[in-house]
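Please go through the sequence line and token line underneath and see whether the fold suits the sequence. See right below:
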Amino acid sequence: MTIGSDTALVLFSGGQDSTVCLAWALERFSRVETVGFDYGQRHAIELSVRNSLREKMAALDPAWAMRLGEDHLVKIDALAAISETALTRDTAIEIADNGLPTTFVPGRNLLFLGFAGAIAYRRGARHLVAGMCETDYSGYPDCRDDTIKAMQLALTLGLDKRVTIHTPLMWIDKAETFALAEELGGEVFLDLVVEESHSCYLGDRSRRHAWGYGCGTCPACQLRAQGFAKFMRERETTK
């Protein structure tokens, strides 16, 4: 694989998807920085696993350690203040009248990419890497490929500088994301993703399942559990 000389900035929440995206970027760019967002999320525990994940990923591969650069944490308290969602309020996770789950935080990924673009401009990074996905998602409109393409154009025009947004998971499901983790870093990285990354919307790290920690009942946990089960079945059939 050819390593690019450019710097990439990875939107890194500490979840399964962003952790795999970080490994993907470390395989492709000579320098990789990360950015996380504290927006008053109900599952803020995801922020607490980020540093440990970065350190343990660097310890897995000397090349990854050499390429991994600074981390940035941005506080966007206003997002929680203006949002009435199940990720920013202690309310039920269900389908709203508009057909979207109440976990949809309007404008979240648009703001994330805008702030990431500003940091990338300052840091001299032309590439943003993010874990948005249309294959296994809850219908969030700000995860769609068309939205990402529009944001890429807006950032390029607004910054007067070419910005490329990479979404390596856009067309793969959770099972394929687990498979990609193993492909990128072997079984040891796959185990790290399972053990250390956090997806549960309720922020539960008291219960350990085969696929990692979580409540086991929220949509994020169910999606991760189903994906891991499918990955393991497919892994067995190829042996």
